[in-house]
Amino acid sequence: MRSHCYACGMKFNLLKRERMRLAATVLFAIPLVTTLALTACDSRKPVRADTAITFTDCRLKHIDSIARCATLAVPEDYANKSGASKTINIHVAVLPALARNPEPNPVYFFAGGPGQAASDIGSLVSALGDLRKTRDIVLVDQRGTGKSKTLTCDAAAADPNVDPLKEAFSNSDEAIQRDWAKCIATLKGNPATHRTDDYIDDLELVRKALGQEKINVWGGSYGSRVALRYMKRYPQSIRTAVLDGVAPTSLHLPDDALATSEAELRSTLAACAASNGCAKAYPNILATFDSLLSELRAKPHAVIFAHPASGKPINGVVSDRTLVTLMWPMLYMPEASRMVPNLINQAALGNFAPLAATMSASSIGEGDIAIAQRFAVMCAEDMLNRTPTANPRFQPLNDLFYGFCKGFPHGKVAPEFFEPTTSDIPTLLLSGTQDPVTPPAQGSLAAKTLSNSKHIVVTGVGHIASPLPCVRRIITKFIEAGNIAGAFDPCEAELKLPRPLFYTSPLEARP
Fold first, then answer.
1. Confidence at residue 306, expressed as pLDDT on a 0 to 100 scale
2. pLDDT for the residue numbered 20
3. Are 245 and 8 spatial neighbours (Cβ–Cβ below 8 Å)?
């Protein structure tokens, strides 16, 4: 399961669907609520009288039971918190614990992206449902995302009447820049106050408003960066932390994520070359990819193919940017990456229909990524005072991201932001060996300054390992115990998944 991307996806049209797909794959992607005086048996009981929030029943995506939702007014600019300063409303959702007398320390989930809302990751929350047996789950939509609509622009709104697949094969660079300029011109809200630390200040106000002394945190992809900064700035508020797809502040988007993705692409194609069936079906597949990329960079190809859903003909153009934009999300999961050699081979033969059909493979929908918020964070933190790093295979994406930041009115962060988090808070780190954006090396780097931590590397897994049954059990045991000794299950020795067999044709996988 992919939850959030870093650079999301960071979940990944260019301004619309293509950028949404990038959003779903590039950042701390892939693609997730409470300790009030509520009981699991009756979600309509009033919240505790001393809280500053009034809750009502609500529904969340991919969550079967009724949740409790509210908004909390917070300062827009924490550097100017005078009585006359502007406030914005932050959306808070709570899933009450199933126990009549729940534990006092809830679990807060931090989504990925940046740009993904916590209230949109119900699938992951459900996968980790055992946590809810004894603890409330709290989901706070980051300012600028989901129901915390504090940063918007006209060009970022998805048009339901536009076919995203047609857009992906018709958007020119000029059209993309024109749409982005419209977004900047119609921007509502202050992007300079929509950085990671602004979100953390919001989270701390929510924690206090709900009367919670300490909380447990789960952060996936970009959400792990949120968790690390929270641990650094408010250590007294955190009981335990789970970091999945670890993205410390020293990891820069899109450069580092794209460099890892390029390495994962080479690894995937090398594995194909080492497989008798794959090598026979697609000889010299890396050279085939590079040749195709070079051709499309020199002269984009006009294409026509049947729409995978309607069957109606699509006339479009494929450039090198289109190719890597559609290929990138496939690297997030080994189950999808095993199709990459076949997709490259078909595209080299002039058949781009299979590659186009993969647009439906993203687990993060078009409306799930807040584009303005994504760049409010990335431009202020990841690309601040930086120039693109050379990466020939993924250069079109690198240039695209940096181009968006040139005219975007983003904020800044202090040099301290990039220093590692030093903490003795019990912390469980999770990494997949085939993660194309937040590889195990990033988890090991973060662990160096986390003295009370354990890093589990899962062989054969891509971005986000938490949904695996064994990992779910370890997470639950860890949070229940509140210490690293509790982060153990005998199944840990079996966390070595084999690489799935490659497709040697559209319908057949062979060793």
1. 84
2. 31
3. no
Regions in the chain scoring below 70 on pLDDT: 1-52, 81-84, 155-161, 171, 360-367, 507-511
Angle between helices 285-298 and 340-348 (to 10 degrees): 50
For 2, the 3-state DSSP assignment is coil
What are the helix (H) ranges across 349-468?
353-357, 371-377, 395-406, 440-447
How confident is the model at residue 33, as a pLDDT?
26
* pLDDT at res. 81: 67
- Tell me which residue of 316, 318, 271, 324 sits closest to 298, measured CA to CA: 318
- The CA–CA distances, whole Å, from 511 to 138, 209, 278, 281, 405 equal 44, 56, 7, 11, 45
Looking from the CA of 427 toward its CB, the CA atoms found within 13 Å total 29
CA distance 130 to 471: 12
pTM of the complete model: 0.90
Task: Please give the Cα distance from 214 to 271 (Å, whole number).
Answer: 46
Parallel, antiparallel, or unpaired for β 87-95 and 137-140? antiparallel
Helix-helix angle 395-406:17-26, to 10 degrees: 100
CB 478 within 8 A of CB 244: no
Type of residue at 32: L
Selection from 435, 492, 502, 440 nearest residue 468 by Cα: 492
> What are the distances in angstroms from CA 411 to CA 202, 370, 378?
17, 17, 10
Contacts of 452 (CB under 8 A, 6+ apart): 423, 424, 425, 426, 427, 484
DSSP code per residue over 296-342: HHHSPEEEEEE-TTT--EEEEEE-HHHHHHHHGGGGGSHHHHTTHHH
SS3 content of the chain, % helix, strand, coil (to 5): 40, 20, 40
pLDDT tens-digit readout, 148-181: 999 999 864 456 667 777 777 876 778 888 889 9
pLDDT at 305: 85
**CA 147 to CA 92: how far, in whole Å?**
9
397-402 contacts, C-beta under 8 A, 24 or more apart:
397/22, 397/26, 397/254, 397/258, 397/321, 397/324, 397/325, 397/328, 398/254, 398/255, 398/258, 400/14, 400/22, 400/176, 400/321, 401/7, 401/22, 401/26, 401/253, 401/254, 402/254
User: What is the predicted pLDDT for the residue at 310?
Assistant: 80
